[in-house]
Write a structure and sequence with these properties.
Shape of chain A: globular
Largest sheet of chain B: 7 strands, mixed
Distance between the termini of chain B: 36 Å
Order of helices and strands of chain B: EEEEEEEEEEE
Helix content of chain B: under 10%
Helix content of chain A: under 10%
Shape of chain B: globular
Distance between the termini of chain A: 37 Å
Radius of gyration of chain B: 13 Å
Number of strands of chain B: 11
Oligomer: heterodimer
Radius of gyration of chain A: 13 Å
Structural class of chain B: mainly beta
Strand content of chain B: over 45%
């Protein structure tokens, strides 16, 4: 049983396209995190959100607590956006349990 | 510059040997974590620590041990009891246990 499901697993886009990655979760959460993992393996935290919407540059993250769903959008995609995007949630009860999705591998072609 | 360092980036060991992975942070974070990443799977929590001299088992602690003698350091030992130690290991830290996590660059361990 996966507490966090992401879709799609793999995504290829042309440079400039608008991209959406989806995340659904089944547990009560205190926060949802979007992470970016580059081919070298290092992980960067993009967003931490518990309601509404956040924007950073060309990246937008939204969350619907009632539907237990979040989306990560990338506007005007660029080849440097190519990475694995991981959704993670922190458990509402304990706060110390994180559940991770398996990631969405994004390739942006010039 | 504040951040998390892990060393080495690549590590090779023979089966039956214990190996210790280093994780150091200068972010003044209280909480630190160790994760394991395998192909096609999400990150899985090995151990976490909320404060110095205290740590808790995660989902896959068997075959691993940790210590937290200093706030800045949270080394992970992969013992010979770990049946499938070859993996990518990531260390992370956060201000507090529910906070945004900052990740290190990872150590890729190969055991043959």
């Amino acid at each position: 049983k996966n507490e966090v499901e992401q879709s799609p697993q793999n995504l290829t886009a042309q440079e400039g396209e608008f991209i959406t990655i989806n995340c659904s979760y089944s547990v009560g959460i205190s926060a949802l995190h979007w992470l970016q993992q580059h081919p070298g393996g290092g992980i960067v935290s993009l967003f931490m959100l518990s309601s509404g919407k956040k924007k950073h540059g060309r990246l937008i993250a939204t969350i619907n607590i009632q539907e237990k769903h979040s989306s990560l959008h990338i506007t005007a995609s660029h080849p440097r956006d190519s990475a694995v995007y991981i959704c993670a949630v922190s458990d509402r009860v304990t706060g110390n349990q994180f559940y991770f999705g398996t990631g969405t591998s994004l390739t942006v072609i010039p | 510059d504040g951040g998390i360092t892990q060393s080495p980036k690549y590590l090779f060991r023979k089966e039956g040997q214990n190996v210790t992975l280093s994780c150091e942070q200068n972010l003044n974070h209280d909480a630190m974590y160790w994760y394991r990443q395998d192909p096609g799977q999400g990150l899985r929590l090995i151990y976490y620590s909320q404060i110095v001299n205290d740590f808790q088992k995660g989902d896959i602690a068997e075959g691993y041990s940790v210590s937290r003698e200093k706030k800045e350091s949270f080394p992970l030992t992969v013992t010979s009891a770990q049946k499938n130690p070859t993996a990518f290991y990531l260390c992370a830290s956060s201000i507090a246990i529910r906070g945004e996590q900052y990740f290190g660059p990872g150590t890729r361990l190969t055991v043959t």
